[in-house]
Amino acid sequence: MARLAVAALVLPAVFGVARPVHAQGRPGMAPLRLPAAPLADSLRTLGLATHTTIIFAPQTVAGRRAPAMVLVGDVAAIARRLVAGSGLVVRRSGLRSLLILPAPPPRAPAPEAPPPPVLAAGDIMVTALRRPTLLADTPISMVALRGEDLGHDHATTLAGLARLAPSLTVTSAGTGFNRLSMRGAYAAGEATVALYFGNVPVAGPGGSTSDPGMMTPDLVLADVERVEVLRGPQGTLYGTSSLAGTVRVLFRGAQLDQRSLALDSAATLTQHGAAGASTTAVINLPLAAGTVALRAVGWREYQGGVIDMPRLGRRNSDDQLREGGRLALRWQIAPDWRADLAGVWQRSRIGNSHSTIGGGAPDQTAAQVIVPFFDTFAMASLDLHGRLGGGGVSLDATAARSWWRPHRFWDFTQSQLNHLDDAAACAALAGLASGSCSAAQMAGYNRLLLASSPTLVDQPLAVDVSSGEVRLSAEGRMTWTAGLFASRRSDDGQSASLGVNPATGLARPGTQPTSLRRFASQLDEYALFGDGSWRALPWLMLSGGLRYFHYARTTQSVVTLPNPFLGPFAPSSLAMATRAHGLVGRARVEARPSSRVLVYGQVSNGFRPGGSNVVPGLPQALASYADDRLESWEVGTRLSGPARSWHLDLNGFHQRWSNMQYAAVSADGSYAFITNIGTARINGAELSAGVALRGGWRAKLQGTVTDARLVQDQVSGAATTDGRAGEALPYVAPWAASVELRREWALGQSQGADGGWRGDGGLFLHYAGRAWSAFRGSTVIDRLALGGFAAIDADLAIARGPWRLGVFVQNLANGRGRVWAGTTGGSDMVTYQRPRTVGLTLHSELR
Fold it and tell me: What is the Cα–Cα distance from 357 to 830, expressed in whole angstroms?
């Protein structure tokens, strides 16, 4: 780690900032000679020789050849000579990146910032390394999805996104809950996978279980440019909660010289469920030509319910509504300076849990308590990008604040009923300092408990996150990024037990809580980071990064009204503070023996800060938990065919997860808390392949294999759980895969300026392997099976000009596999696949 620190901090100083690079190489060296060749090959060779990213769509350069040439002069000038007379133009998109585009029509205004073209076989431009690179040239394991990919499968939620990226798992253990995990790193506590909206990290509240990773804001994925799923530890560039990976959702920004209006509508019908509908509107308005533009997005999405509650006479109780909007304002201050101001707001409502009590029918639940979810999310951000002094150093700065107000509920009936005939609770309620309750006292205690049932836990929560980051970067033979990051996350809430009317499933009006506790926490993070890549040889790149972090956390909890049945049986309070600091980093070697082959190897690690539990009555030894770490070793390759007609990405990894923060459960199953217990090793492989087939068909395959097992018994000095060495970790599927077939075609002869009628359609298959909800020897909660099912989706559309009409089917075979299973509130719960859903879509766009 010390050597890594030297590399990260000293190399930028040794090589200085990036200067304009000329293709003739070092003084005294013979100029490089480029033979006549297909234009695509010549451009790739030029990029390798000059350390420049040259972005072009294969269909743009197909059939064109470049003349023999001596590579002397500025790289942009060389590129212009290569494309001379081809009807193509060269534009700069960054200090060391060029775009090759078709020449605009005569007198047509040239776009000031053309969008990066989408390349064949799924290759697109990404910014996972905090600089623009082609996916094919990015030496890390990742999945990049375009907004069009999300639209084809109608993926507007995080769960829908995970279907398109099998290495990402979204686990919902309750109404409104979304835990992200990747590469087998599934655990309670701080999130193991960071979620970014643009350049802004967002987080969930710690709540009553000190578990921010349990809940994740789930914005409607509308008007998305792309999503990047970065696999493996990303702490060097993305910091906290990037222990196992990072998900970046990048929305489209305002376009300075394009006025447009787009409308998307959909209507759905679900088998044995209620109908649904959604509408999204996007408007882009230049306010000052070439200088200021505004983009506004609004959405309303209603999903009909499918879960019936016969005991309460309710049908389709779990309907969901999400509505909100986003504003993006762009100001081109100067040719090299840009400011982006953005704001987003969304509120949502879920009528009831999507889960049923274990053993029941997939669409019916025996529950007698309605468990809704409400939330409001808002975020504001300011991004500034520019070049310092017109030179080779770029500045990027982000300031942001997010507010999230989730209001969640639990069905606590079974947890409370587990305390019937509880001698300790009866004695405490009777005020007995010693001895046990009489038979009459116990009968009275049981009557009181039953009269308080069914029971609902009501938890209104709040979490506010303020963050800021400043980065300096430069590109060249030495490409580097250095920056500062600071954030403050404050959250608070309360937990109250309320009696429920068994006839309605709702809390009794005016009822007084049976118990009440309040909690709050604050997490401050400060970090200094650097990341650099040095091209040691034309085909060899050496990279390293380091992040120094400092965390400070405070936690408070007050029990003002003790629970008379579960304990503790007296008011109590807790106040604790924890701190942590240290280093995380990475080192990578990447080799490109040819323009179509990339091979890399990387060592990296991740970190999660410790904290304090707010569960009442815990022994002092379990009141706090320490940080945990994950170390990762991986090797990978990216291969591609001529003109990107096919591609194959393959990588393998080995991870060691030490001092794991893991969820333990009180003996009666009523309370969950976090403790450090055990070490795991995780081995796996990830595959992504794409190929262009005959007849206009394209095929894409993604798969992941994960073997996550304990290497020692989960035993510590303070607690013992059921995990034993060699057992597979819960909620980790051994493998997952997806296959997509898609085609676009012309319907008849193209006529008119709109290009005539066009068609497109596709089939999508997703498989999730079998997993378990607990370790084999679990004694507190049941071990339930989940996964082990496949789902098939299909879509078909016709389009002409700005109009597009489509039909889609989700879960074509109407499978009812177990999406999730677990024990919540003392009851076994199961969530099944949503039944077959058929929908119609209509898209229109005016410019």
Answer: 6
Q: Tell me the pLDDT tens digit for each residue of 644-659.
A: 789 999 999 999 999 9
The string of pLDDT tens digits covering residues 5-29 is: 333 333 333 333 333 333 334 333 3
Who's near 705: CB < 8 A, 6+ residues apart? 684, 685, 686, 734, 735
Angstrom distance (rounded) from CA 755 to CA 771 = 49
Q: Classify burial at 823, counting beta carbons within 10 Å of its beta carbon; exposed 0-12, middle 13-18, buried 19 or more.
A: buried
8 Å CB contact between 471 and 511: no
Characterize 273-305 residue by residue with b for buried, 16 or more Cβ atoms within 10 angstroms of its Cβ, and e for exposed. Answer: bbebebbbbbebebeeeeebbebbbbbebbbbb
- Stretches where the chain sits below pLDDT 50 are 1-30, 107-122
- Backbone φ and ψ of 92, nearest 5°: -80, 135
The pLDDT score that the predictor gives to residue 289 is 87
Q: Is 835 exposed, middle or buried (0-12, 13-18, 19+ CB in 10 A)?
A: middle
Q: Measure the CA–CA gap between 824 and 357, rounded to whole angstroms.
A: 10
CA distances from 742 to 41, 75, 278, 699 (A): 27, 37, 24, 7
- Torsion angle, alpha carbons of 783, 785, 787, 790, to 10: 180
Q: What number of other Cβ atoms are within 10 A of residue 450's Cβ? A: 11
Residue 156 · residue 149 · CB < 8 Å: no
- Please report where in the chains the tokens 């030894």 appear, as a residue: 621
DSSP designation for 321 = E
Pairing of strands 661-665, 672-676: antiparallel
d(CA 824, CA 202): 26
Taking the CA of residue 83 as centre, how many other CA atoms within 13 Å lie in the half-sphere pointing to its CB? 24
Q: Residue 791's closest CA among 349, 154, 151, 206?
A: 154
DSSP output for 705-724: EEEEEESS-SB-SS-B-S--
Angle at 52 between CA 50 and CA 56, to 5 degrees: 125
Which pairing describes strands 125-126 and 407-411: parallel, antiparallel, or unpaired? unpaired
This prediction's pTM: 0.86
Helical (H) or strand (E) element with 181: strand 179-182
What is the CB neighbour count within 10 angstroms for residue 598?
A: 21
Tens digits of residue pLDDT in 102-121: 876 654 443 343 444 444 44
The answer to whether the CB of 775 falls within 8 A of the CB of 815 is no
Whether residue 174 contacts residue 408, with contact meaning beta carbons closer than 8 Å, is answered with yes
Residue type, 475: E
* CA–CA dist 181, 190 (Å, integer): 11
DSSP 534-573: EEEETTEEEEEEEEEEEEEEEEEEEEEE--TTTS--S-EE
| Residue partners of 611: CB distance under 8 A and separation at least 6 | 189, 190, 206, 210, 521, 523, 553, 555, 578, 624, 625, 674
The encoded tokens of residue 188 equal 């309670």
Phi, psi of 180 (to 5 degrees): -90, 135
> H/E element holding 247?
strand 245-251
Closest CA to 586 of 228, 199, 232, 247: 232
Q: Spell out where 366-454 has E strands.
A: 373-387, 393-404, 407-411
Return d(Cα 833, Cα 787) in angstroms, integer: 10
Radius of gyration over alpha carbons of the chain, in Å? Answer: 28
Is the N-terminal amide bond of 619 cis, ω within 30° of 0? Answer: no
C-alpha 434 chain-centroid distance = 54
Nearest to 801 by CA among 748, 745, 752, 742: 752
66/75 Cα distance (integer angstroms): 15
Angle between helices 39-50 and 75-83 (to 10 degrees): 170
Query: 146: which strand partners?
Result: 226
Buried b (16+ CB within 10 A) or exposed e, 44-58: bbbbbbbbbbbbbbb
